[in-house]
Amino acid sequence: MGVKLGILGLGTVGTGTVQLLQDVVGRNLLLQSVEIYRVGVRSLAKIRDVELPADVLTTDLESIVNDPAVDIVVELIGGLEPARSLILQALNNGKHVVTANKAAIARFGAEIFTTANEAGVYVMLEAAVGGGIPVIQPLKQSLSVNRIHTITGIVNGTTNYILTRMQTEGSNFSDVLADAQRLGYAEADPTADVDGLDAADKIAILASLGFDGRINLEDVYCEGIRQVSKTDITYAEKLGFVIKLLAIAKQYSPSSPLSVRVHPTLVPKAHPLASINGVYNAILVEGEPIGQVMFFGPGAGAGATASAVTSDILNLVAVLKTSTTNPNPLLTCGHQDYCQIAPITELVTRFYARFLTKDQPGVIGKLGTCFGNYGVSLESVVQTGFQGGLAEIVVVTHDVREGDFRQALAEIQNLEAIDSIPSLLRVL
Ligand SMILES: NC(=O)C1=CN([C@@H]2O[C@H](COP(=O)(O)OP(=O)(O)OC[C@H]3O[C@@H](n4cnc5c(N)ncnc54)[C@H](OP(=O)(O)O)[C@@H]3O)[C@@H](O)[C@H]2O)C=CC1
Ligand SMILES: N[C@@H](CC=O)C(=O)O
Ligand code: NA
To answer: Where is the ACT domain (predicted)?
Structure first.
């Protein structure tokens, strides 16, 4: 008996998924029993890159999630609504759901997974984090016997692509963003990528799986890459770092709250994440007893993401073909409690800061005194250039509590010799 798919969305990922499913020779044999039964889109007039019988396409997405013949709904429209309502309707109708929608899962995961568990169906989301990289199922299954203490990822392809080209070609931010949009990497509204919100959604999902609890998205500290300048990329390079947008979830000790955050970070060139370039993503998982495992691969794009979507479809086809009354706990998400998240002021990290100061004798000494007042010790202080008659001083600290560092900065900002502090970045 064939398994009937109702696919919602035929954009970058939807098209990639249909292409993969229309070309099954040499792939897992189970895919041969999958039928693309209905596909929901916004516009029937649009020219598509795939051929589908005319009666398969519809603009009535509700008719798909309510159609008793549909076994699996594949949600690839993105955004919050109507995606949330369509997913819930499909689940309430007893259909399994595959989604690539990290924005909806990070915000409505509790409601969506509770509905799925009550209906006895599954929500699969491998494409939602790391695009084509298998990371959701490994965290739920292969790594779940470990005590995870840190997940550090480059999880947004668009920003990694932009930062890489800014670093290697000295390219301009907006030109590179336009290329990322053209290549299908960026979200419909690319501010979600650029401002770190997409990465925040993804680390919330990974942290929930790695640390076995729900994550309140509002507790995730988030900074994007808009303030990363060519000047900082050049300084970072000279100091032995590259700048990456990192998403980090870390538990410093078994009983302490989690630190979950997204921010541009100076990564030492020798670190495994430093060499992840372009649209590639990587997720470094550290736990006990396994040690370090790194997942690497294409984090966005039609084919790569379609691979993840289709792997979820495949899992569900296997479930439908062997259906038992008891749900498989390695496929469900059953968390009930929320993880406790520490405020960013409690973070202990190294910092990079760039100051523009008046060219006066003793400025570095004054900076050092202010830092010393709050227990901030300095790893390096460099004064290399001048900008518009102002001296440029770059400081890298040793590990410091973020709250103490911010207090020192507030005092420094009031120094007569200080013009401005154009950059402040954390260092891995
Ligand atoms: N692009 C990527 O590399 C990746 C994307 N994702 C996620 O996958 C999902 C899809 O992304 P992507 O394919 O890039 O998005 P696109 O914008 O390329 O495609 C969206 C599709 O959904 C349809 N659609 C959107 N809203 C509606 C609506 N209200 N009613 C009917 N149809 C609608 C559009 O119809 P029409 O074609 O008629 O306009 C289009 O076919 C998102 O959740 C995204 O975050 C995840 C990993 C990687
Ligand atoms: N816009 C996202 C797409 C994949 O999730 C990205 O750039 O990573
Ligand atoms: Na993935």
So the answer is: 352-428
**For the segment 373-410, what is each residue's pLDDT rounded down to a tens digit?**
999 999 999 987 788 889 999 999 999 999 999 999 99
The 10s digit of each residue's pLDDT in 141-168 is 999 999 999 999 999 999 999 999 999 9
Distances, alpha carbon 123 to alpha carbons 307, 315, 388, in Å: 17, 11, 56
Q: Which of 7, 44, 76 to mutate to test the pocket of ligand 1 (most atoms within 8 A of CB)?
A: 76
How high is the mean pLDDT of the chain?
96
Non-local (6+) Cβ contacts of 347 within 8 A are 259, 261, 401, 402, 426
> Ligand 1, from 8, 38, 42: best to mutate by most atoms within 8 Å of Cβ?
42
pLDDT tens-place string over residues 241-264 = 999 999 999 999 888 999 999 999
Ligand nearest to the CA of 301: 1
Q: Token digits for 9?
A: 């969305």
Beta-strand runs (E) in 306-414: 348-357, 378-387, 390-397, 400-401
Q: pLDDT band for position 20 (50/70/90)?
A: very high
Per DSSP, the three-state class of 396 is strand
Using CB distances shorter than 6 Å, the residues near ligand 1 are: 9-14, 40-43, 46, 61, 76-78, 82, 100-101, 127, 131, 184-185, 187-188, 300-301, 305
Query: Residues with beta carbon inside 6 Å of ligand 2?
Result: 131, 156-158, 185-187, 193, 198, 299-300
pTM (two decimals): 0.95
Task: Return phi, psi of residue 48, to 5°.
Answer: -105, 155
Q: What is the β-pairing status of strands 241-251 and 147-154?
A: antiparallel
Given a cut of 80, is residue 329 above it in pLDDT? yes
Instruction: For residue 30, give every residue at least 6 positions away whose Cβ sits within 8 Å of its Cβ, in sequence order, or none.
Output: 314, 317, 318, 321
Fill in the DSSP letter of residue 126. G
Tokens linked to 137: 């199922």
Residue 1 has pLDDT above 80, yes or no: no
Nearest ligand to the C-alpha of residue 57? 1
**Residue in this structure with the two tokens 């590179």, named with its chain if needed:** 176
